[in-house]
Design a protein that fits this description.
This is PH domain-containing protein. The protein is α+β, with helices and mostly antiparallel strands. It has a domain at about 1-135: Pleckstrin-homology domain (PH domain)/Phosphotyrosine-binding domain (PTB) (PH-domain like), CATH 2.30.29.30. The protein is built from 5 helices and 7 strands. The chain is globular and about 40 Å long. The N and C termini lie far apart (about 95 Å).
């Protein structure tokens, strides 16, 4: 809950007033995935609302503007929520949330709820959108708050889903010997290049073509004189 409240930017005063009532409606092992200030369908005149979404329940509290009292506005299990729709608006910025749920055990007809979840920036909008998608579109996925570290995998050689093996780079060549990068043709092409580059120190050979095809129509060089080369003085 503390990580979610820090991500939502709730003040210490708001937490001290709403958190005690929010904790009464969730069990000890239930994880809080979303905590945000919201505005009800009645507007700002109805008071300040705080919405809390966990893995099992959706709780909304309301603080009256006149007396400052915090009361429970909605407490419903996630499984009982129907016709849930939300719309992310980065230009707002915020998320509009609409759903239908029974208000309590004695209620005969469900009620349609409308909330506006304001956000400080566009990244917060997409964060709330992702948390709602994990909670209602993919119930088996776990919603991790931003301040909580990721869980380490039990087997580092497996992917997070456990389906695809993760092959380290040093052992990839031993597991896949039929790689196209290690063939006899590649070795034959690399050896002449290494021979042309690896020269003795202090000796600069004349440039020559490497792996150039022989031209049968080109005449070969003529015979060279076997005597000593002419010097500058003799010239």
């Amino acid at each position: 809950m503390l990580a979610s409240s820090a991500e939502a930017g709730l003040t210490t005063t708001a937490l001290s007033r709403h958190v005690p009532l929010l904790r009464r409606n969730i069990r000890a092992g239930d994880q809080v995935s979303l905590l945000s200030r919201c505005v009800g369908s009645d507007g700002l005149g109805s008071g300040d609302h705080v919405l809390m979404l966990t893995g099992e329940r959706l709780v909304v509290t309301r603080q009256s503007r006149l007396l400052g009292r915090v009361r429970l506005c909605l407490d419903a299990p996630v499984a009982a929520i129907a016709n849930l729709r939300w719309s992310a608006d980065p230009a707002g910025p915020g998320v509009e949330l609409n759903f239908t749920v029974l208000e309590g055990p004695g209620a005969t007809e469900p009620r349609r709820w409308h909330f506006w979840l304001p956000a400080s920036h566009a990244k917060r909008v997409w964060r709330v959108d992702a948390l709602l998608a994990r909670a209602f579109r993919r119930p088996k996925a776990t919603a991790r708050p931003a301040g909580k570290p990721r869980a380490q995998r039990a087997n580092p050689l497996l992917s997070p889903s456990g389906v695809f093996p993760v092959v380290p780079a040093p052992t990839a060549g031993a597991l896949f010997p039929s790689s196209p990068l290690r063939t006899d043709a590649t070795v034959r092409l690399v050896r002449p290049v290494i021979a042309a580059v690896d020269v003795p120190r202090g000796h600069v050979p004349a440039p020559r073509a490497v792996c150039a095809p022989a031209d049968p129509q080109r005449p070969g060089p003529g015979p060279r004189a076997l005597g000593p080369a002419p010097t500058l003085a003799a010239a």
